[in-house]
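Case 150 in the screening queue. Each case pairs one protein sequence with one candidate compound; here the compound is 2'-deoxyadenosine-5'-diphosphate. For every case the pipeline is the same: read the inputs, emit a complex structure as tokens, and attach any notable structural observations.

Predict complex for case 150.
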Amino acid sequence: MERTLIIIKPDAVQRALIGEIVRRFELRGLRIAGMKFMQISRELAAEHYKEHKGKPFYEGLLDYITAAPVVVMALEGTDAIEIARSTIGATKPIDSSPGSIRGDFGVEVGRNLVHGSDKPASAERELNLFFSPDELIDWSRDLDRWVFEG
Ligand code: DAT
Ligand code: MG
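Case 150 output:
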């Protein structure tokens, strides 16, 4: 079982896509371990996106992610990181397959609707930034044995 951090970004919240996006992850089979509605501070945004510091889009990225409330989720499941990334789609919506979130709802890279951690080390770092241990719930669903083989 792997956990990943998902952010339903300000554009998706403003466009009333929270339910649609949560629905897609739920239907894929991933299990919610944590979820909250919040507004990201500049400091937290800078920490979250520190790998991009110095890039031309960095300041605009911080403006965007802090502009309005977001929903953050911890999702878990077998290969949750890659599974979530495929449901989200490629970074640039123009490259995202129809059927993915960005491919169905996105046009611009700077308004690409959802964040998902890209590898296990990022997921661990990002989950710790957004959730305290007591906000992540260990639980199981009755349907888990029909989604997860192990
Ligand atoms: P992802 O969000 O798919 O993990 P990333 O980590 O490379 O992509 O970049 C983080 C965010 O930064 C991305 O969701 C949108 C923005 N971004 C990335 N590359 C960009 C570019 N070339 N121009 C503008 N914004 C960009
Ligand atoms: Mg990334």
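Case 150 observations:
- The chain has one domain: 2-133.
- The chain has a mean pLDDT of 98.
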